[in-house]
Amino acid sequence: MSTSVSHPCKQEREGSFFKLINSFAWEIGTLKKEMRRKNEPSEGNPKTDTLIGLGEEVGGLFLQASPCAGIRAGLPGARDSGYDSLHRRLSVLDKLVHTHTVWLQLGLRHQDATHILMDQPTGTFLVRKSAALQRKVISLRMDKDSAVPVKDFSVKESQYTFSLEGSSLSFADLFRLVAFCCISRDVLPFTLKLPEAIASARTSADLEEVAKLGAGFWDAQLCHRKEDSLSGSTAPDRPPTSAQRLVSLSTAPAHPWLQTRTPSELECCQSNGALCFINPLFIKVHQSDGKSTNTNPCGTAKQDLREEPVTNNLVHTYKDSCSPSLQICSSDHSVCSQSHRSNPKSLGTNTELQDNSSQTSCSQKPSATRIVSQLPPPRPPPPRFVTQRSALPDRQHSMPEKIPWINIPKEKVEERERSTSLLSRLGSSISISPSSSPPKRLNISSPIYIPWPSLPSSLSSLSSSPHQARTSLSSSQEDAQCHLAMEDGIIEKAIMRAKQFQRKTASTTMQDSSSPPQQLLTTTSELAHMQEGEEEVGEECSGGGQRLSDMSLSTDSSDSLDFSQSSAFFLPHLHDPSPPTVADFNNHLPLSIPPSHLPYSSMDQEEDDEDDENEEEPDYGVSLESDQDQDQDVTMVPPGRHTKRRPSASALVFQRALRGHLHKMSGVFNSLLTPEKRAIRKVVELSRDKGSYFGCLVQDYLSYMCEGATQTLQGYASGLELLQTVRQFITQMKSYLRQSSELEPPIESLIPEDQIDQVLEKAMHKCVLKPLKPVLSVALEEFQVRSGAWQELNENLSLAKVRQPQEMGVADMLPPDPVVIEKIKRKFHTMCKLYSPEKKVTMLLRVCKLIYTIMEDNSGRLYGADDFLPMLTYVLSQCALPQLDNEILYMMELLDPSQLSGEGGYYLTSAYGAMSLIRNFQEQQAARVLSSETRDTLHQWHRRRTAQRSAPSIDDFQNYLRVALQELDSGCTAKTLLVRPYATVEEVCKLCAQKFKVSDPENYGLFLLIEGSSQQLAPDTHPQKIKAELHSRPQAAPFHFVFRRVGNRNTLASSHLSHTPNLNDLSVTSDTQANLNDLSKDLSGPCPQVSLSLELNPSLRLSLPSSQLNSNSISV
Amino acid sequence: MAIRELKVCLLGDTGVGKSSIVCRFVQDHFDHNISPTIGASFLTKTVPCGNELHKFLIWDTAGQERFHSLAPMYYRGSAAAVIVYDITKLDSFQTLKKWVKELKEHGPEDIVVAIAGNKNDLGDIREVPMKEAKEFAESIAAIFIETSARNAVNVEELFQKISKQIPPLENPEVESNESFKLTRQPAPSVRRCC
């Protein structure tokens, strides 16, 4: 091509590398019947045979998880057809993840577990939650010699990890723990054994079949017989019909993102002895490294390729965390892009737009997939904030239903694009970390430019060039038949591209010595300029050459190109919108990846910004240290290189490879997501999925709040009230998520118990507060202006500002100087831009810390509130930021109640107090006390906010009712049922009978248990109304709806109360028992059904204020 | 062992040594792991009590009159309030009485009240007789102790006494996913005995 001599050795290596890629493409082609041998010779690969083998190998490496990933990506058919032939085995982890509905039975009691496992072979297990230990346990079927047939091994959940009691191995989530135990017994008497049907499953469809049975699996014959029929039903070598695909889609809705390796890898890890934390990814690398000996010229490339998955993961992480690498990658891409496109400049914008749109769409994909699976017909895009994102689930190519999504008007995309870049700028300007440096800001904004050009899916991956992307956009229908993506020319083109690229790169490598590359570089950066006109272009122009020279793969073109622009085209497509943050790795995968900061690698730009800001780690710039994985790849990482650089090099390689042929690999990134991120992501996705109940609620709420902004506003008396409703909504949705099963897999399997609430809180902030923040800010200000408080506040602020520190109560301390005040103001400005109350509070804490530092520096002693509060008041008055008032209100009302008594709560309270003093400055000057009004406000605030601690749970939520099944022999089981407000008791009884699988529903009734009394509810009353009544009582007593046997109530009630094994669950104590019996007698009279309808409230209040009252009084 | 977070509010005139008591209490025990401490007005310390761990979240308040009106925000939700006076300043004891009254009227119902006469190392210039203070404390069923933050006298004891008065949780209130407890609220009673 246009380029020159490159170092022969390098070229050779590259050559083989790209041949490898080519061969890989070829392999894909082979798998597709459509392709056959047509393309094979087209590029004249001399070593095709070897390479095919290699490709297979590599494919195996990459694609083990593919069935799962494929389903998630919406291309299950493609996956199955393409790779099952090669990779029939599913890893243990895959199997576990797919079938968690079978073995993960948190609600089971020991007896149940014993009962189930009795019939099972030794080693069979369940994971349940022990009521006694309040912990998850693995209930394991012991062998014949054992004293007990089933033994529980408890699972320790530390802050971030899951481990077996007594074991020092800990895992990021429950799945990994169990998977490990399936392979190595560790502290168990023997390894866990998967039921035959699961163990022998060959495709994810098999697993789905099993998973559908849920707990019923154990009863079903299925678990006893080996099922061949299922696996036989899928013909892996043949591309499935679209119907087939649909089926598999629908049976595999929200797939867990756990990506897995084979068991042997796990084992390998252990024998290695290096890790406590098992991350199969790394292990795989290790393994394959051991196998491959690089004797032939191909060796390096081979190794490199093998290395890629891992490296790229790391790279991703890294990329996110640090801009230099990003720059490198992207610049490479621009080189590449240029070489690939006939008319890059003109194409640039379009492509970028598309890329961008596809990128944004990526974040939607999983939910979109889910939508598809649940509601086949196209769905109108959700309310606006979502629409933008949901623009283009390109992975849905394969699915005809997706076309509506794909055919998004270009203008929209463009619009989005623009706003994106705006946002990115904003993002960079609002980076808050005190330690954030310019590069970091770049970093913040950088993800914004990174497109997710799309189609991480296996086959369509080939169509990922800009041109191709457009094609897929426009002709999505064709692409919908995913195999069409493989149309003849494409692979050829891809290979051509690869070749071109290779040459370009080579020439780039020679940058120093030859002019053409120079030109190339220039053009590229020009291109970059053209594309975005951003000023960051070429910021690090100088560093390139040197780096190139160390690159063993000589793929690193340099830093010289602006990353943000060019990257737009070439970052690899990921399945997962958000690769993990290194910070998280730091926390969660301690042995896998060292600390470094990073936002997601980009899907959701704003999110990235936020996340970025949200990260507290001061040193974001830390790169990934070379870990076991990277280090193993000697070729990849030249010894002299700074660690920081490595990822970029490998990133480049990998991205290219990825872009071209290895899209399925991207699923692997998921496995690097920390469980917390994964969980949050899941919630966020669910919230955008209007096909889920949760998604519906959230989206409806959001559109109500946003679109009806003006009317909505008028509906509230004050900003306070507005915020309260928002908080209430968040709390309710949290409880809903906690108790519903819409999250898949259950959050308990990903997040240690004590972290769940926190994680859900974060997730809710993201799905609710993030879109609402702007609306809320505007609304709050309007309220303030309308009520005149704004003006008053401003007046008082200006009055207070001119006061001497002493007048504000600051005694014998040096007040902060104007420079510090400026600094504090900046922090406050940053704080205002955040949406998460938690992050805002963190920001506030930083300000407080700063004030403290100044105070202490000046005197050297410790100060308590006597000194701090006046100083804070003074500082706030000096800052003169009236908007702080609303910000504080926002935080106070929306912060997670559990945090209110902590440090954040304390300083928030102080800030609120200080602000109130300022707000009432004049008055205070006059009276030297706060108005009684302010006092009342404070008073009420605390009452309200502390009351929220016992805040509504799911059953308080209007469409839900929590009903307990009370059985003679088995204590209470509760379920949260969907009960419409006007559903009658009769209907609820039916529902209960069905849900609890009661065989003789006619003998059961719905009872209201309140303060130790129990009364049956009349069939025509409305439980939801009763609930509402009870809730509206000023001092709502705890109450429960219980579904239990009507006959023999006396015996039942009493025996239950006194003898249930589960009695600790039921602390209706014996003194109330008498009443209960009385009541039961009463009720079992001629008119057994107490009519409890709307008059309930008064009567209840009269009759049930305490348990001493005999409930006779209320019967009829 | 379950960790229980207990919010403790410090009340009292400015200069009586509220923060000194806390600083002494948490001295050398700064919990670096849990959260970096911003300043001495909010400190935490975890102490074992029975088979529980009590994590005191200690909220200091500003004693000046002008900030008096903010106090409710601080003592709301507190499990305990430590009202500090200076044994060398009669005024501070009068202020203490006002705080007791306010807590009775507006404070949390079952708040544990502890009265701490600080600076007992300055016994020679004492203005508040120990007996008087003790009697007052008994009359309101409050914990009473004289401390010296400077000499680290009785500071630990003060918090130990508070710890003992905090009723233990009957059952860990963890709600499992699939079952829930039918519980009566524990009867509010017998908290204030000495």
TrEMBL record, chain A:
Residues 339-402, 459-479, 530-561, 581-649 are annotated as: Disordered. It is found in: Cytoplasm. Transmembrane segments: none annotated. PANTHER family: RAB GDP/GTP EXCHANGE FACTOR, RAS AND RAB INTERACTOR 2. Pfam families: RA, RIN1, VPS9. GO terms for biological process: signal transduction; vesicle-mediated transport. Signal peptide: none annotated. Belongs to the RIN (Ras interaction/interference) family. Residues 957-1048 form the Ras-associating domain. Residues 375-384 have a biased composition (Pro residues). GO terms for molecular function: GTPase activator activity; guanyl-nucleotide exchange factor activity; small GTPase binding. This is Ras and Rab interactor 2. Residues 339-372, 467-479 have a biased composition (Polar residues). Residues 604-619 have a biased composition (Acidic residues). PROSITE patterns: RA, SH2, VPS9. Residues 548-561 have a biased composition (Low complexity). The keyword Cytoplasm applies.
UniProtKB/TrEMBL annotation, chain B:
GO terms for cellular component: early endosome; phagocytic vesicle membrane. SMART domains: RAB (SM00175), RAN (SM00176), RAS (SM00173), RHO (SM00174). Keywords: Cytoplasmic vesicle, Endosome, GTP-binding, Lipoprotein, Membrane, Nucleotide-binding, Prenylation. It is found in: Cytoplasmic vesicle, Phagosome membrane; Early endosome. It is a lipid-anchor. It comes from the Eukaryota. Gene3D superfamilies: P-loop containing nucleotide triphosphate hydrolases. Signal peptide: none annotated. GO terms for molecular function: GTP binding; GTPase activity. The keyword Transferase does not apply. Coiled coil: none annotated. InterPro entries: P-loop_NTPase, Small_GTP-bd, Small_GTPase. PANTHER family: PTHR47978. This is RAB31, member RAS oncogene family. The lineage of its organism: Eukaryota, Metazoa, Chordata, Craniata, Vertebrata.
